[in-house]
Design brief:
The structure is a single chain. By secondary structure, the chain is α+β, with helices and mostly antiparallel strands. It has one domain: Lipocalin (Beta Barrel), CATH 2.40.128.280. The chain has an eight-stranded antiparallel barrel. A hairpin with a 2-residue loop joins β7 and β8. It is globular. The termini are far apart.
């Protein structure tokens, strides 16, 4: 019996060590800003954006003029459910802007697939959420990294 327990623990330990880098690699691949342009039922266009930094996320919905309509932030965790990779958003604070957020008592679990600068994100299938959060399949594109002032080309000094 002890041999079986030791064998099971060894297999579980090996699986944990082998499985962890895959999620670490996905978290690295997901790091940055992702966005997609969408159209609501009234024909109005808006942008959906999620930014991931380490184990944190920020989410924004912005109108065609770039004004934030919904803002959320919280923790992000990657997991696996059968053959699917899942992104779990928890400890969420949300509101109309970064300065006007309150905690919400909910967790969102989405299915994702990353392929280079494209992320397929299946959202709002984890439970019934009402009319405001209809299930959707979004094709998110990764934004190019922003250049820092130190990376900007310098003008030649006057001669």
């Amino acid at each position: 019996m002890k041999k079986q327990i030791v064998s099971i623990l060894a297999v579980l330990g090996f699986a944990a060590v082998c499985g962890t880098p895959a999620f670490g690699q996905d978290l690295e691949a997901l790091a940055g800003k992702w966005s997609c342009l969408k159209t609501n039922e009234d024909g109005q266009r808006y942008t959906q954006q999620i930014e991931i930094k380490k184990d944190k996320f920020t989410f924004k919905l912005a109108d065609k003029d770039g004004d934030t309509m919904i803002y959320a932030e919280g923790d992000v965790k990657l997991d696996k459910a059968g053959p699917f990779k899942t992104m779990i958003l928890s400890n969420i604070k949300a509101g109309q802007s970064a300065g006007q957020i309150d905690p919400i008592d909910d967790t969102f679990t989405s299915i994702y697939k990353v392929d280079g600068d494209t992320c397929l994100l299946i959202m709002n299938f984890d439970k019934e959420r009402g009319e405001q959060f209809k299930p959707s399949l979004d094709v998110m594109r990764k934004a190019a990294p922003e250049k820092k002032a130190a990376d900007a080309p310098k003008a030649d000094a006057p001669k």
